[in-house]
Amino acid sequence: MDMSARLYAGEGDAHRIAVPRRATGVCRDFAHLAIALCRCMNIPARCCSGYLSDIGETRPHPPGDFAAWMEIFLAGEWHMFDPRNKKPRFARILIARGRDAADVPLNQTFGQNTLTEFNVWTDELA
């Protein structure tokens, strides 16, 4: 099953069981699915959220984006894996780690609110 063809069509609310059935999802959905599969094999796994910048990307490079990925514990240390991107990204900026996506939301608000602007800048340090 090729889930990558419809990767960006997800609503971001898919249950990890629905992702392979629908063959679509967003980065958080794929991270949740991969974490669940690791845990089924008794491999410790945790969810991460952060920012993927365009630093180190060749032009035309993809724009920076907020993303979710995972870390698994193997051979005595944590290793980062990104089930969404098909190649490593150099400038991955970690914001939060937790058991699952509920622990690491980009933002969490209560009551009515409107986000009017949100800008992120990243620069490579020499």
Write down the overall mean pLDDT. Answer: 81
- Strand content bin: 15-25%
Unreliable stretches covering 5 or more consecutive residues: 1-10
Biggest sheet descriptor: 4 strands, antiparallel
> What separation lies between the terminal Cα atoms?
42 Å
Indicate the structural class. alpha+beta
Strand order of the largest sheet: 3-2-1-4
Round the Cα radius of gyration to an integer and report it: 15 Å
Tally of individual helices: 2
DSSP strand tally: 4
Inertia-based shape = globular
H and E order: HHEEEE
Q: Percent of residues in helical segments? A: 10-25%
Short overview:
With 126 residues, this protein is an alpha+beta fold.
Write structural notes for this entry:
The protein is globular and about 40 Å long. The protein has a 4-stranded antiparallel beta sheet with strand order 3-2-1-4, covered by helices on one side. It has 126 residues and is α+β, with helices and mostly antiparallel strands. The model is unreliable at 1-10 (pLDDT under 50). It has 2 helices and 4 strands; from the N terminus they run ααββββ. The termini are far apart. The relative contact order is 0.18.
